[in-house]
Amino acid sequence: QVQLQESGPGLVKPSQTLSLTCTVSGGSITTNYYYWSWIRQPPGKGLEWIGYIAYSGSTYYSPSLKSRTSISRDTSKNQFTLQLSSVTPEDTAVYYCAREFEGDIATFDYWGQGTQVTVSS
Length: 121
Description:
The protein is mostly beta strands.
């Protein structure tokens, strides 16, 4: 059973960088052929895909966020991280990490619990 757990500060000031870590257990983030994704849900809105880092280390980001987004990984810790720069209150959301299969895009079989991030002064 794969488990994912988000961690990081719940409050970020405007213009700063949001940084979250997803710790994965029960499976390796380098295993073929899985993507490790970040998804968010602003209050009162639907889910928004942010991007992923693949088993190979390749990354891909949502066009609307790619200029501010960086996803990286630490394979020794089986963790991957999200950095979202220049945040505004519109970035306030519940942030999730999840696993996606390369052969079944948009199906996420394992999710973290989600973590609330509020952007505020």
